[in-house]
Amino acid sequence: GDSVTQMEGPVTLSEEAFLTINCTYTATGYPSLFWYVQYPGEGLQLLLKATKADDKGSNKGFEATYRKETTSFHLEKGSVQVSDSAVYFCALGGRGSTLGRLYFGRGTQLTVWP
Amino acid sequence: KAGVTQTPRYLIKTRGQQVTLSCSPISGHRSVSWYQQTPGQGLQFLFEYFSETQRNKGNFPGRFSGRQFSNSRSEMNVSTLELGDSALYLCASSLNGMNTEAFFGQGTRLTVV
Predict the structure, then answer these.
(1) Residue A62 pLDDT more than 90?
(2) pLDDT per 10-residue tile (average), chain B, 113 residues
(3) How far is CA A22 from CA A68, A102, B24, in A?
(4) CB B10 within 8 A of CB B108
(5) For B83, which DSSP code?
(6) How far is the C-alpha of B9 from the C-alpha of B15, rounded, in Å?
(7) Is B94–A95 a contact, with Cβ atoms under 8 angstroms apart?
(8) What is d(CA B63, CA B77) in angstroms, rounded to the nearest whole number?
(9) Strand, coil or helix: what is A84?
(10) Contact criterion met (CB below 8 Å) for A111 and A85
């Protein structure tokens, strides 16, 4: 079945460092892919998405490219800020009999120090 | 526009009791899904409703149930609570669940003692 494997943290970086969080998926066809972010005590917020191969999603300086050949959707940011400290989840959108469902990775805790 | 509203935010229940959680989706959204989040298991899918019909269900025991009303508001119920049901329960709404953006509420933190 569909699944997402995500780099587990925690990840600790200094402010202005480069961030990469790896995410790979298993699915047939071309599912939509998402990155969500969860700040302490909050629900999940959609960070970015891509709906087909080679699409690049971007938001707030974060980017991720839908790579069909490597079944990956890695999250990157060129210069992180303290305010980026949160838990990041990679997710895959269900289709057909699993329509309406999101498959999540385990989440990656990011801490950015000033 | 108003976001997804979950009530209550916090709950403390005793083992064996039952609990009902509520979710009001964004206006116009017809798909509501529920997830359980725990440190050990991460985010696990409970069920999804679309136009008052359960369209998908995760691998949870029958103690977990839900429903959706004609105004798209949804409730989930957990009967005969167990300690292991302590978790953050998140509700998400989307227009139709078809790979569109899902918007999450802040969640209900359930503690079973």
Answers:
(1) yes
(2) 91 98 95 94 94 93 97 97 97 81 93 98
(3) 14, 18, 34
(4) yes
(5) G
(6) 19
(7) no
(8) 8
(9) helix
(10) yes
**Residues present in chain B in total:** 113
B42 → chain A, closest CA residue: A106
Question: Token digits for A15?
Answer: 């402010």
Question: Which letter does DSSP use for residue B32 in this model?
Answer: E
Query: Sign (positive/negative) of CA torsion B95, B99, B105, B108?
Result: positive
Is B55–A42 a contact, with Cβ atoms under 8 angstroms apart?
A: no
> What are the residues whose beta carbons fall under 8 Å from the beta carbon of A28, sequence distance 6 or more?
none
Residue whose pair of structure tokens reads 């969860």 in the numeric block: A38
Q: Which residues contact B41 (CB under 8 A, 6 or more apart)?
A: none
Distance CA A82, CA B93 (A): 29
Report the residue of A7, A88, A92, A101 to disrupt the B interface, i.e. the one with the largest count of B CBs within 10 Å: A101
Q: Which residue of A has its CA nearest to B88?
A: A43
